[in-house]
Amino acid sequence: MSLEARAGSGTGTAAPAPRAGRHPAVALLVIAAAELMVVLDATIVNIALPGIQAGLDIPGGALAWVVNAYALAFGGLMLLGGRAGDLFGRRRVFRFGIALFVFASLLGGLAPGTAPLVAARALQGVGAAIAAPTALSLIATNFAEGRDRNRAMGTYAAMAGVGSTVGLVLGGLLTQYLDWRWVLLVNVPVGLAVLAGTVVLAEAGRAQGKADVTGAATGTAGLLALVYAITRGGQDGWTDPVTVTALGTAAVLLTVFPLTQARARRPLLPLRVLRDRSRAGTYLTLFLVGTGMFATFYFLTLYMQHVLGYGPIRTGLAYLPFSIGIGIMAAVGSRLVVRHPPRELAVPGLAVAAAGMIWLSRLTPHSSYWGTLMPGMLVTALGLGATFVPLTLTAVRNVDDRDSGSASALLTTAQQIGGALGLATLATLSTAAADRRLPHADTAHRAGLRAHDPTLVAHAQDALTYGYTRAFLGSAAVFTAALLLAYLTVDAGPQERTESGSPQEPS
Question: What is the pTM of this model?
Answer without folding.
Answer: 0.81
